Amino acid sequence: MAETKPAPGDWIGASLLRREDARFLIGKGQFVADIRLPGLEDACFVRSPMGHASLRGLRRPAEWAERVYTHDELGPFQALPAGPDIPGYRNVAYPVLATDRVCFAGQPIAAVVAPTRGEAEDIAGLVELDLDALPAVTDAVLAMAPDSPRIHDAWPDNAFITSGARAGDAAAVAATAPVRITRRLRMNRQSIVPLEGRAALAYWDHRLDELVVYLSTQGAHVMRLGIAQALGISEHKVHVIAPDVGGGFGGKNRLTPEEIAVCALALKRGHPVRWIEDRREHLMAAPQAREHVYDLTLYADRDGTMLALEGDVYIDAGAYPLWPTGAFAEASMAVRNLTGPYRIRHIALRNHTVATNKPPMGPYRGVARPGACFAMERLADELARELGLEPIEIRRRNMVTAGEMPYVTAAGMRLDNGDYPASLDEAARSIGLDAIRARQRTGEPDGRRIGVGFAFYTEQSGHGLKEWARRGARVMPSYETCTVRMLPDGSAQVLVGIQNHGQGLETTLSQIAAQELRLDPARIAVRHGDTAVSPFGFGTFASRSTVFAGGAVARSCRILAEKIRRIGGHLIQTDPVETRLEDGHVVGPSGAAVSFAEIGRAAHVRQEMMPPGVDPVLEATATYEPADSSGTFSYSTHAALVAVDPLTGGTELLDYVVAEDCGTMVNPLIVDGQVTGGVIQGIGTALYEEVPYDESGQPLATTFADYHMPCATEMPRVRISHFVTPSAITEYGIKGMGEGGAIAPPAAIANALADAFRDSGAQFNETPCTPRRVVAALEAAEVPT
Amino acid sequence: MKPPAFDYARPATLPEAFAALLGTEGAMALGGGQSLLPMLGLRVAAPSLLVDLARLPGLREVTETAARIRIGAGVTHAAIEDGVVADPSRGMLRRVAAGIAYRAVRNFGTIGGAVALADPAADWPACLLALDAVAIIAGPDGERRLPLEALLLGAYTTALEAGEILLGFDVPRLGAASRWGWCKLARKQGAYADSIGAVVLPGDGAPPRIVLGATTSRPALLPHAAAALARGEAGATLRDALLGDIEAAEPDADSYRRRCHLATVQRAIAQATSA
Amino acid sequence: MTRINLTLNGRAQHREVEPRQTLADFLRDGCDLTGTHLGCEHGACGACTVLIDGLPARSCIHLAVRADGCDVRSIEGLRDDPLTVLLRRHFHEAHALQCGYCTPGMLVTARDILRRFPAPDEATIRRELAGQICRCTGYVGIVEAIRRAGAELANQPS
């Protein structure tokens, strides 16, 4: 395995301890709910108690009438066109407050403002709603039946879009392929659950003549765009600040109605207003994730060669699209990633992005790929079982090898580099496959069954303009920006448009700046999360920030470094081209050196020391987009060892290993933290987390008593092996990796369950694999207790 | 998720507490609050007055006789877990206490509060029923004693009358020859139980007590299984008796629930009968 | 409003509170002690854990009126507490936090674990952490930090 030990003075590859930690460890992080302002009042929302209904009217308590706001009283709002700008995509507005129809339980209908949240809830509880229940649509597959109730009356069916991907001649292969594996696979709906929910605080700042919005978001600049547009205010009068953000995982990368409503309330009322989402609101009305159904057939030869993949993918997108990306990203990415690392040249895949009476689906760590990986990797294991092969053997036979790269998949993904089979072998070695097989033959003393499961995924990052244009994105996050500024004392500020919300980006970006400037990171501040501070950027999502913002930091620092050398060379009377940067100094070939402090002083306050023709001030701005628009691919094999109680269906994770390659690691400590953090969320998807809905559209998990997440007791110690294949298209060879950990666990764990009961052929094709579902699978396969 | 408005009283004597509970429409007693506060936040409970029992004399006391130990209703789960209070059960109470929710909840949640709420998934009702405990109840007209079977009527339903306060439990001391077993099944550590099996073998000639907890109603004694166990039955005979009792205790249980119940009771029995 | 007298982070306080106000809201809104975070408001996530008379408590399911006569300590009051100082260092070195939202409650709980279990092993730490939700780290760093702190304590001459 690659050991990353940077040379002295090199900061790329150093496991620097995080600079962010200090404030959180003393309770001095500053989240939106921590902001204190004079006159601040709390908002809450009157929400639909029904999954689908006509809204006939609303009666407010007379005593508090002026504290209750409906859509018409709070508006007007400009509609935000959300979703891709592509043919066949049906758009619909997600109203800030419902007007004549409610389409999911929890949808906001009216806003209430009061001095405290408790009082606001008192008033909300007195508002009477006149609702006529409509039949609810809660299953994306049934929703596509011709006689299904409609959610959006103007549409001919319930699909936002029906699309697909084709390559080769799947029908011809299907006619002759000797082996076919047909399965329905289902990944159920879950919540995203950052520990800090959504939060917004807004007020008009009369001195600056602008609306100040504190927002718990993953991208302040893009949210400003949306808020200004929705409210019809000029962008220069909207100032968005994302202070510390208590987790996002994708869900806070969308502008939601409650956040727009808070801004409108602040304008109407003339005092600061905040809304702090509580946990029940989060579980009912925040963006949700994951709900996919796959009806697939995999065709193969008798030797296990995968030939073709055909079928349908249903995405339960919820009632409305979220701004800016809309409802299609899941379906598009699921289909394009479905074949994973395998040489399958024939595909015929249809996808259906379906509206249902549930909250909108948003992006969540891994976006679409946990479902795609689950579907493909379960099929791979079922093929292995059908042919009597080891699951890793079926993968070896079909995986793209290093020698074949770059390899363009049937769905058009350009897998750039790496050694996929090596990662598979390492995971098998690390989990101890041979010893597990021996142990399985012996049996467990407690009567449980053990099983080992593998799953492989690739994770695209750094994709640029052409890729986003192909997707029809209305906001194309194909670059990032950085301004680097050196101050008169030689310390530096790095101003970026990404949003650190747990990823340690203040630390990693300081390391990149330190690398380029040859300056101790302790002398470099990283600032983000404020539209008034940093140049425009898109924020942190899609495993993009270290690739994009890291690249922008590197580029801007190089521009600055050149100027520093020019000034420094002048001060030590040396040709700048002969100088180098070293430990905060410009050093000449003779050893003569001048510190950045002296250079900063010259550039700012002692201009007479500057070389002729060089402007004062040390500041540079640069944007960055990787060299190839198709992106670069991290990859990983996960392996899980489970023990299952055949009587109760209880599943314990005994071991979990990851063999991953994310190219060059800027900070290996943080990389491991991101991998492990992703894995536990994937374990949640695999075994615990689910928001089920009943037939009327009522959510059945609205507190943590019903919505289970893995805690320390349920989590094994994750063991990680690293490979390092630097990307050829990014600065330093970095590949994005923040999401990856969450992609493979559902597949690896379901495969482990199937392995534990391989003899009986019990099927584990639905997540989360709750004890109840495991028992159902065992009973269907007639596994004795 | 903020509690609705209510008044608050913290009586110093039992008569004051009775008066507060009976004198105000919609008054509720507040024990440790670890279940009531979430219900207030969710606004599924809306009392006009909360009568805080925390400062009532005697509720945290533990008194011992040769045959029984009386545990005050206000004793916390953590105090039992830590062995701070005398244990009549040769370790069963401590074991049960340690598995309730989380330490920060156990520090304030009380044994009396848990029984009075009668949440079907709660641990103490099943445990105290298996231990053949008797509840001591105080009301305006004096004290009365009710065996757990008579106190627990159903999900969230007890025989406590309006204005009555649970003072504590008399728990018989288990003898040196006694054995017990406890098995709780939950989705994860600290979560509400899906099933509880509790077994006490008094070892003094008294019959075994086998309890199934976390049913959809109240915890149930399993009489046929207990009789089979007393006869020394094991294997299929005991299992059949168990399945019959489980059917009676939770007639609507589906296959999964039956499996859970079978597992917890079987494992509790195995624990109690193992060497 | 009800009058309460309590010791808060070592200082006597005399306050008026509404009966319905939770201790968490009292600390955050009444005392501006915003280090106590709300993650669920129903006692399940542990982010709001503080000490009442030395015992970890979920301040979101504890009424402020009940803190009358109590000694309450929040993360702000543990700034110089030797055990917390030790834990803080190990949390930093073991990468035991990411977004930082769960961290104050996690530290209060970790401190209690070390007080009850000298040099706890991994299984003990995991069991005792069960009620603390961290959505970011996967607990690996947290468990390791507590283990290291416990081991360091055990090796110190008392």
TrEMBL record, chain A:
GO molecular function annotations of the record: iron ion binding; oxidoreductase activity
Keyword Transmembrane in annotation: no
Superkingdom, natural source: Bacteria
Aldehyde oxidase/xanthine dehydrogenase a/b hammerhead domain segment(s): 26-135
Name of protein: Xanthine dehydrogenase family protein molybdopterin-binding subunit
Keywords noted in UniProt: Molybdenum, Oxidoreductase
InterPro entries the UniProt entry points to: Ald_Oxase/Xan_DH_a/b (IPR000674), Ald_Oxase/Xan_DH_a/b_sf (IPR036856), Ald_Oxase/xanthine_DH-like (IPR016208), AldOxase/xan_DH_MoCoBD1 (IPR008274), AldOxase/xan_DH_MoCoBD2 (IPR046867), AldOxase/xan_DH_Mopterin-bd_sf (IPR037165)
Species this chain originates from: Roseomonas acroporae
From TrEMBL, chain B:
InterPro entries: CO_DH_flav_C_dom_sf (IPR036683), Diverse_Substr_Oxidored (IPR051312), FAD-bd_PCMH (IPR016166), FAD-bd_PCMH-like_sf (IPR036318), FAD-bd_PCMH_sub1 (IPR016167), FAD-bd_PCMH_sub2 (IPR016169), Mopterin_DH_FAD-bd (IPR002346)
Database matches in Pfam families: FAD_binding_5
Flavoprotein keyword on record: yes
Residue ranges occupied by any FAD-binding PCMH-type domain in the UniProt entry: 1-176
Keywords: FAD, Flavoprotein, Oxidoreductase
Molecular-function annotations in GO: FAD binding; oxidoreductase activity
Protein name as catalogued: FAD binding domain-containing protein
Protein source organism: Roseomonas acroporae
Automatic annotation (TrEMBL), chain C:
One Pfam family it belongs to: Fer2
CDD domains: fer2 (cd00207)
Superkingdom classification of source: Bacteria
InterPro entries assigned to the protein according to its UniProt record, in alphabetical order: 2Fe-2S-bd (IPR002888), 2Fe-2S-bd_dom_sf (IPR036884), 2Fe-2S_ferredoxin-like_sf (IPR036010), 2Fe-2S_ferredoxin-type (IPR001041), 2Fe2S_fd_BS (IPR006058), Beta-grasp_dom_sf (IPR012675), Diverse_Oxidoreductases (IPR051452)
Entry keyword set: 2Fe-2S, Iron, Iron-sulfur, Metal-binding, Oxidoreductase
Keyword Metal-binding among record annotations: yes
Protein's name in the database: (2Fe-2S)-binding protein
Species the sequence originates in: Roseomonas acroporae
